Amino acid sequence: MRWIKYWVIGIILVLGIYAASMYFFVEESKSFRVEKEINYPIEKVFPQFNNLQNFYRWNSYFSSSKTMHADFYSPYEGQGSAMTFWDDKTGKTGELFIRYQNLNSTLKYQLFEGKNSNPTLINLKFSKVSPTRTKIIWFVHTPKQGLLNRSLNLFTEDTFVADLDRSIAGLGNILSNKVDRDNLFANIKYDTVMVEEQEGQLLLGVNVSTKNGKDALLRNIALNHNKVYNYMTTDLAKRDDEIGLPVMVTASNNFKDKEVSYFYGIPVSKRQSVSDNNFSFRTINNSRNYVMYFKGNFEARTGAIKQLLLKAKKDTMRNGDLLQTFIEPPVSGEEVNMKISLPVYR
Known about the structure:
The protein has 2 domains: 23-182, 2-Layer Sandwich (Alpha-D-Glucose-1,6-Bisphosphate, Chain A, domain 4); 194-345, Regulatory factor, effector binding domain (Multidrug-efflux Transporter 1 Regulator Bmrr, Chain A, Alpha-Beta Barrel), CATH 3.20.80. Helices cover 31% and strands 35% of the residues. The chain contains 8 helices and 16 strands. The longest helix has 31 residues, at 156-186.
């Protein structure tokens, strides 16, 4: 029985040393400041924070789990908005409130986790670095912890910063698609040959071969658009501002052939596991492109393609595959609105 006595005394000593070290060396709550900058204008960034439905989609605290769920409460945006969240797998639960808003300047959150009645206070300050760059500063104050749980404060800041880095990357992906689309729609000049620098893209889509008869190609494209879009939004749970505009990749001169082979895909930010073998990834490299925007009958787009090929020949440039980006989703029997790009190089 003596060893039991020693064992109990040893446990008491360990707990005593632990409690004393927590009391003297670890704060009962923790306050810290984190500063980040993001390459998007403040009027685009702020709505991703003051609308909790937007915030939930890119913030790694929520989006890293596939079993996380949330309910949102009116007014849905700005001061007074709120959400509850729960994770069926991990058991994580909580509530998030926006207690104060100064538009494009300041937000104050309260985050309640589990059964803790004391919230984590998160204040955010937004400032314009330039017309296209925003600084965000997080001021975080954690709730008081009892002696036995105070060791959590040793890791709070590191965990928060790591989670924040992943979140900012997710926010950047969403804003990239939103801003790129806004800029595209604002600067369209139809039926004019232009030169653009094309950033690389990762497409997820399908390889197709089909007849190139009258209306047959557009019908087939519309069918495959729905197939790819539905897979992205239903099976992969992507939202419209998480994906780019759909792109059809073909050989530059096969528009005259009786049968056309093409890859139809939608840009995504990164590769992920794809369970359906009908879908595959394709990489589009950075390139300099001759570009024309076209709106009208699908068959008439061949005139724009010929102009691009003629300019490449005149400039003694070699060219890659033709990229046809659908600004509006293709619909059988209707006019198309598209950007036709021909990558060129010496």
